[in-house]
Amino acid sequence: MSAARDTKAKLLDGALRTLAEQGITKVSARTVAAAAGVNQALVFYHFGSVEELLSAACRHATQQRIARYGPRLAAVGTLSELLAFGRAMHEEERAAGNVAVLGQLLAGAQTQDTLATATAAGLDLWIAEIERVLARLLPATPFGEFADVGGLARAVAASFVGIELYEGVDAAGADAALGALEHLGVLVAAFEDLGPVAQRAVRHRLRRAARP
Prior knowledge:
Helix content is 81%, strand content 0%. With 212 residues, the protein is an all-alpha fold. The chain has 2 domains: 1-48, Arc Repressor Mutant, subunit A; 51-210, Tetracycline Repressor, domain 2 (Orthogonal Bundle), CATH 1.10.357. Helix 1 (3-22) packs across helix 4 (50-75) and helix 5 (79-96) packs antiparallel against helix 9 (171-192). The longest helix has 26 residues, at 50-75. The N and C termini lie far apart (60 Å).
């Protein structure tokens, strides 16, 4: 790794560590540079501004997470497994401090347009991953022909983001919400195990319910 790339990597990691440990209001060239162990002038040399550094750190963090979890998502074989993966990922991300980083990025995005754009783009990367899984899994279920895959992927992503943030004020409530999703997974699995005749009956009832 070149010296410039090494410095940029240190600054990206320093920005994420500062977000997790001190919060968005404490992020500055000085605090990030201290966390990175470099001169604060290098923040502006490499990124132009603290806001641009945070945007780059958001993209960097998302790409790291997707590289980590992508193979596991690709191996998911049922909707129940997808929900179980979501809980496992939540536990890993919380332990690593990444849930705190997400909360701070979303807070900063309320007032910083550049950060809002980067955070939305990061979430879109996750939504694309979930959408690919749902597009692969849903056709084999009674719900496949009725589901808006793109909308459902966004709903799933929004649910997990909300649960991650909610956990900070009500850990028991967040755990109950994850448990409820897992119970939904049990119901979905029961439908998946139905025989062809029963599945046709379910599809027929769903078609009737879906009519305007």
